[in-house]
């Protein structure tokens, strides 16, 4: 028996040619759309760039040395999600800070010659973003490259920022502080990714059909995992000046595994939105490439769907742990494609979603007699390259449960700050939000000075 989970806001596969073709009279409309997106994105992160990390001063973790494996998902977070364990909450928020660094360091100024690069050197990044005392050192910058091309007939009629192919997308950081290593119980390696920021990255997001993994990412067994085409392109594409994100990550991880082979080590990959999808691909690639890799964990915020059921099964087989933080009011987490849920006793279903806070029955629609499809229809549906699978354990939250958020718009529901606010105030399914929230949202309009978040 299986059911079909329909997507909200599902988009058709698209390329930049599909978007921009037509008469030249349509070009200003396309450019205006990109410009509007760019302006909204800059406004959204202006406040983020200027916000002090003091807002996290009240979220300091206790010692994790005796519990870190559980917080990293060694037991699939059993008993930690509902109610939400405080140590796990603090770890989720801590990794959310690393994603915020990826946003703050990115140059969003399209008029700047350094647009889409990192604003700071590796040695300055953590200190400039308020994490200089966390004990982490940035060891490598990471770039993602788009494979879509601006059509030749467009010529020089579009600004340079639209055709920007490679951009800074995140970084690798290593915990080097002895006291922090002792507190965590191991040396932690963090890979952090920002969300979509450039015009061509938006176009890659729209390439929503599934594609087979390349040979160097395919498993040895006779199976064919498939992932979203645009995400795979961003992960594997390169230019003459920038290596692919895949090559950069694997080279850095190989170096770190060799350097710290004689001590406890963890690899935590975190990201928001597009960064969440790249984090999942990165985790798959690391565990598939390095057979003796340490525990690899993904902590993702507001991520879209990434791959099909075979891809999920390979992740589970390789021991990759994925914790997806989902806002049930965030449409991005419900695209692309649709999901077929198999309601049987398959052993591969150990990674079923855990829905806490709000149960969205409308997401699961049973179809056909007894909720089942004939096998030939099932096969036809899967052949459309639009059938995705939900991956990992899910911590489901809802903006509607938070009085400070109310009925947020699409941008607010997807914003990283919203996610961190919900995690910080979530208790459990019986009591979704703390009776007395110890934090208020940052002023998103950025028209008055930042309010310092209050802890009570």
UniProtKB/TrEMBL annotation:
SUPFAM superfamilies: alpha/beta-Hydrolases. Pfam families: Lipase_3. Keywords: Chloroplast, Hydrolase, Lipid degradation, Lipid metabolism, Plastid, Transit peptide. One of its GO terms (molecular function) is galactolipase activity. Residues 190-338 form the Fungal lipase-type domain. It comes from the Eukaryota. InterPro entries: AB_hydrolase_fold (IPR029058), Fungal_lipase-type (IPR002921). Its main location: plastid. It is found in: Plastid, Chloroplast. Signal peptide: none annotated. One of its GO terms (cellular component) is chloroplast. GO terms for biological process: lipid catabolic process. Belongs to the AB hydrolase superfamily. Lipase family. This is OLC1v1038522C1. It comes from Oldenlandia corymbosa var. corymbosa.
